[in-house]
Amino acid sequence: MAGDSTTIARPYAEAAFEVARASKQLDAWSDALAKLADIVADPQVASQIGNPNLSDRELVDLLFAVAGEGLSVEVQNLVRLLAENERLTVLPDLARLFEARKTAVQGVRHIQIRSAYALSAAEQKTLQSSLKSHFGAEVELTVEEDSSLIGGLEVRADDVVIDGSVRGRLQQLANELQF
């Protein structure tokens, strides 16, 4: 289902991105979409999406009431369009795809780091600097502790995986011994 949701969200995200870029409102759109994605993901709101007792207009009004002030007319129109097409549930994927496109255009790479132990701020800064040099772009790190790695790090950037963990090396040795 997540793959379907992403596929459905992609053209909406691309269209939203182009509107936001043309109006030089990338950050405002990014914030609005993130807020709306959080609202739609809330269990109380999610239970109302698809409720046959609520019209599209009532559902949209509910989302706008929860979101509060600050949604541009264009963002409101996108929400109305999603509601009319029964696509409000794709808002989290739409927001994620929009953000990915925004950071790609701005030259920022999101990198996920899994470490066997907690990394200090200094270690994270050194790692960020090294990865910036390696990828030739600004990097934004998300660091997660995972003791199952035994030692070392695992770095994921889009489709690139650098496994410098002890667990990864042990797995590699086990694979070599099987041949």
Automatic annotation (TrEMBL):
The entry's keywords: ATP synthesis, Cell membrane, CF(1), Hydrogen ion transport, Ion transport, Membrane, Transport
InterPro entries noted in UniProt: ATP_synth_OSCP/delta_N_sf, ATPase_OSCP/dsu
Recorded topology in the membrane: Peripheral membrane protein
A cellular component term, taken from the record's GO annotations: proton-transporting ATP synthase complex
Matching SUPFAM superfamilies: N-terminal domain of the delta subunit of the F1F0-ATP synthase (SSF47928)
GO molecular function annotations of the record: proton-transporting ATP synthase activity, rotational mechanism
Gene3D superfamilies to which the protein is assigned, alphabetical: N-terminal domain of the delta subunit of the F1F0-ATP synthase (1.10.520.20)
Main location, first listed in the record: membrane
Subcellular locations according to the entry: Cell membrane; Membrane
Transmembrane segments: none
Family: Belongs to the ATPase delta chain family.
NCBIfam families xrefs: ATP_synt_delta, PRK05758.2-2
Stated role: This protein is part of the stalk that links CF(0) to CF(1). It either transmits conformational changes from CF(0) to CF(1) or is implicated in proton conduction.
Entry-linked HAMAP family: ATP_synth_delta_bact
Name of the protein in question: ATP synthase subunit delta
